[in-house]
Amino acid sequence: MRRGNLKIRLLIGLAIIAFAFVRKCSNKQENPYTGRVQNIDITSDQEIAIGLQSAPQMAAQHGGLHPDDRLQAIVDAVGNKLVQNSIARETPYRYDFHLLADDRTINAFALPGGQIFITMALYSKLENESQLAGVLGHEIGHVIGRHSAERIAETNFWKTVSMGASVGADAGGLVNGIGQNTLLKNGRGDELESDELGVLFMLKAGYNPEELIGVMKILKAAAGPNRVPEFKSTHPDPENRIQKIREAIIKYRGR
């Protein structure tokens, strides 16, 4: 009887895993704004809802919003200029730009659906408006590239696979750990795609895309000599990003 139960559990587990792979294949769709085929299992409306729900918590983790309305107005103006002069205006996303009070963490990030953040620590390092446009254009690229939605779909896939492995054998924890640990941040490909989109958005809005190279130099200097080697990091090395940015400038300039 125990052998029969084990066989049933194994079959159920295999069925769950097979379902995960079938669902992943059926979720393949072409991004209408980038042309890239992606695994996505949520709608744009769901992306927007996730971003709006998560935004207050993300802001709180960085000391809340910066109190200077004048600086916030500058961020809004540059962000909205990028949106209105690019393909971003044709997307269903709701773009909101937030200057965070955090004056220690040099960072900018985007939530799914259009919620975009830049810390005061990074803002204060920027030398001109074009560099700000480079940062915000890169983050808009993450939204249009649907990078968070891809990570959500991959996480859901690994959760289902883990469930099947747990039913069929005592291996679910390992599979789940692999899935979670590899999907917490944007990958190198996501960063490079967003850099290229950022260059395009800057050009469309009349900003100097060369200043995005300046942003990379700021990030490199902030990381210091002990920065994590590229092969150990989810982000490309700043020098490699600079080279790709130069290639994108050549590609899009004059179009």
Automatic annotation (TrEMBL):
Superkingdom of source: Bacteria
Protein name, entry field: M48 family metalloprotease
Cofactor note: Binds 1 zinc ion per subunit.
Any single Gene Ontology cellular-component annotation: membrane
Family designation: Belongs to the peptidase M48 family.
GO BP: proteolysis involved in protein catabolic process
Biological classification of the source: Bacteria, Pseudomonadati, Bacteroidota, Flavobacteriia, Flavobacteriales
Cofactor(s) for this UniProt protein: Zn(2+)
InterPro entries given in the database record: Mito/Outer_Membr_Metalloprot (IPR051156), Peptidase_M48 (IPR001915)
Source organism (scientific name): Leptobacterium flavescens
A Pfam family recorded for this sequence: Peptidase_M48
Gene3D superfamilies listed in its UniProt record: Metalloproteases ('zincins'), catalytic domain (3.30.2010.10)
GO molecular function, one term: metalloendopeptidase activity
PANTHER family noted in UniProt: METALLOENDOPEPTIDASE OMA1, METALLOENDOPEPTIDASE OMA1, MITOCHONDRIAL
Residue stretches making up the Peptidase M48 domain: 72-248
UniProt KW keywords: Hydrolase, Metal-binding, Metalloprotease, Protease, Zinc
